[in-house]
Amino acid sequence: MEKSNQIFAAASATVGAFGLGTVLAWTSPALESMQKESEEFKEISKESQSWVGAILTLGALFSAPVCGVLMDRIGRKNTMLILSVPFVLGWLLIGYAQNLAMMLCGRFISGFCGGGFSLVAPVFIGETAEDSIRGALGSGFQLMVVLGILFVNTVGSFADWQWLSLICGFVPLVFLISMIFVQESPRYLLMKGKNADASQSLCWFRKKTSSQEVEDELKIIEISVNESKAEKAKFSDLALPHNLRPSLIMMALMLFQQLSGINAVIFYTTNIFKAAGSDLDGNVSSIIVAGIQVVATLAAVFVVDKLGRRILLTASALIMCIALVALGLFFHLQENGNAKTIGWLPLVSLMVFISAFSIGFGPLPWMMLGELLPPKVKGLVASVATMFNWFLAFLVTKFYQNLLDAVGAPACYWGFAGVCAVGTAFIILIIPETKGKSIDEIQKLFGAPTVTDDSEESRK
User: Fold this and answer.
1) CA dist., res. 450 & res. 459, Å (int)
2) pTM
3) What would the pLDDT profile of 303-336 be if each residue is shown by its tens digit?
4) Which of 55, 322, 397, 439 is deepest in the core (most CB within 10 A)?
5) Where are the domains of the chain?
6) What's the CA angle centered on 251, arms 247 and 252, to 5 degrees?
């Protein structure tokens, strides 16, 4: 199979995404298990629980600048290989934690490594896959994240928090073993002036036996690398209107994505069902919700280029808003003793919420990073947007429990619903459709000068 090496490389890299999913979902089954079965954590406070859930996002936030530098210094592959070692250590610290400090340290390290994969793996896949399969392989990253979430909720339904942690610790080892057999990105090798190694690498990815067979593609990559070196982005470039507008749109999409409350739902799914007094076991409900997320994410891969970005984002935000209103309504009725006949509503609401998120606000903001941003400032804005996203994730997961205690469940979920409502209006009024448009055509929408414009200007 001609593309088998590219598929194998992408599959190996996305094992790191699977690992990120396990980190994100771990608290949902583990917190309840810790309180039931561990003397050290039997009386763990709600404040401490919020730190156990949230500190991984701080680790992921700090990993963005570190891994951004590392992948340009030592390579995409080597950066991911290095991340796999502390990833295992992080899970061991969690699994053998004797106190809160060990637990928090392990969660921070695993969050750092998982966040590092979320930055490096998509870059690696984008640089090694052919145009014809780049979209499908790139979409595999988000799919593996939600598969990791489903895996943790399933294993966590029968394994205690310690065994769950140790099982999750095998995931980075699987990545380490498989990635050893993968070549480095040819683009990175050209950046370092290793042309012969780059040619050999590209031959491996394209399953060619002779460097002459990849010579034309290698030249195209080399031209792109040279252009990137010649046009280093500066923060002052962001003040230009054609750079500022798409950059602000990306920041807004990240804001709406995280303030929809998605990470609070993923981190505390079991707790939500427990608080709702659902007839279904909390772990079973979590598995159902995670399974729905996998199916919806897979569906998004097939419909995003047919329906368009704006339609999916609008439908996603609107349906999420309705689902959160319904969830808040359930808790409002529960407080007044009128929710006995609608114990099914929390499960349905979260299934609808997760489905809507997974077809729109989950994958599309990350996909649109590559579409909306001008090439010159793409790397700079992508790094800032990634850190902003993880910072918002920290705020939501850390203060979710505080918000619940301060205003109550109905107001909390209605607040998230309000964010989704504002997001719906923002998409309709501000965001342009990018389906079927080239990068040049998208930049024209923001008033960016194009090659044609520059040529006409020079003739004048």
Assistant:
1) 14
2) 0.83
3) 766 777 889 899 999 999 999 999 999 888 888 8
4) 397
5) 1-182, 239-460
6) 115
